[in-house]
Amino acid sequence: MQTTSPIENKVFQALADPSRRAIFESLTRGEAPVRDITARFSISQPAVSQHLAQLKDAGLVIGQKRGRSVYYRVRPEGLKPLIDWIAHYRAFWTDHLGQLENLLKELDP
Amino acid sequence: MQTTSPIENKVFQALADPSRRAIFESLTRGEAPVRDITARFSISQPAVSQHLAQLKDAGLVIGQKRGRSVYYRVRPEGLKPLIDWIAHYRAFWTDHLGQLENLLKELDP
DNA sequence: CCGATCTATAAGTATATGCTTATGGGTTGT
DNA sequence: ACAACCCATAAGCATATACTTATAGATCGG
C-alpha cells in the first residue's frame, strides 16, 4: 500500500504461512538437509524446496550445499525486520498501556 | 501444517498484508473512525472495513460504535502471540549466536 | 561408468486473497 | 419523516498462492 520496506514485506509474508513457520521452527533444532525436512512433514519435496526458497529470499534461512545434500539453517538476524517493526512502536505502547514493557521482560529477563 | 495456534495464525496472516499493516500502523497515531482511515489510503471503504474485520478477528484492533461512526483503535496485547513466537526461541538464539540479545537491547534499552 | 540419490525448477491446478461495485441497516440533522 | 451520512456485508472478479507431478542437473556408491 505504501511505505513498507521490501525485506519487511518478505519476512512477514514468509512467516504468514503455517507450513513455512513449521519448517523454520523445525530448523531451530539444528541444520538439516532438505530430505530430512521433507520427512518431518506431509508435503512433497518440491513443496518444501519452494518454502525454503521463500524463507531464504526473506533472509530467514541459508542453505549450504554439501555433496548432494543442501543443509539449511536458521539465520537469526533474519528476524531483525520483525523485531524492528515491533520496536518502532515501543514509545506508543509504553505511553498508552505499558503492556509491551511486561511482554519484553519475558524476552529479556 | 501442524501445531500452530489459531490465534497465532491469524496474527501472522493479518500482518502479512501491507495494506493491513499500514492501517494498523496508522491507528498507532490514535483511534479513528472508518471514514478517516479510508481517507488515508487509496482503497475503497469496503476494502478498509474488510481489513479492519480481519485485524479485529486477529485481536489486533477493536472497534467501538459511537453514533454512526465506528472508532477503531489498536489493541497492544494483540501483538503478544507475535512476541511469544519470537520469545519461544530465545534460548536457541542466545545459545547459538547471541544475536537476538543485541536486538532485544534495542527494544528494551 | 551407471544407477541411485538429492535437490531445484517447470508446468499445471485448485483454492485463497484482495479488491471492486452494489446494497441494506443504523444513525443523525432538518 | 426524509434525506444524508456511516459502515458492514454480499457478490463477483482477477491475481496470488500453495500444492501437485514431471523432469533435469549434480553428486555419490559400487
Report on the architecture of this protein.
Chains A, B: It comes from Lujinxingia vulgaris. Chains A, B: Residues 1-94 form the HTH arsR-type domain. The structure is a homodimer of 109-residue chains. Chain A has 109 residues and is an alpha+beta fold. Chain A has a single domain, classed as Winged helix-like DNA-binding domain superfamily/Winged helix DNA-binding domain (Arc Repressor Mutant, subunit A, Orthogonal Bundle), CATH 1.10.10. Chain A contains seven helices and three strands. A three-stranded antiparallel β-sheet of chain A has the order 1-3-2. In chain A, helix 1 (6-16) packs antiparallel against helix 4 (45-57) and helix 2 (18-27) packs across helix 4. The longest helix of chain A is centred in the middle third of the chain and has 13 residues, at 45-57. Chain A is elongated and about 50 Å long. Chain A starts with 5 loop residues before the first helix and ends with a helix. The A-B interface holds A 1-4, 9, 12-13, 15-16, 18-19, 21-22, 25, 28, 41-43, 74, 76-77, 79-80, 82-84, 86-87, 89-90, 92-93, 96-97, 99-101, 103-108 and B 1-4, 9, 12-13, 15-16, 18-19, 21-22, 25, 28, 41-43, 74, 76-77, 79-80, 82-84, 86-87, 89-90, 92-93, 96-97, 99-101, 103-108. Chain A binds a DNA duplex (30 and 30 nucleotides) through residues 17, 19, 33-35, 43-51, 53, 65, 67-70.
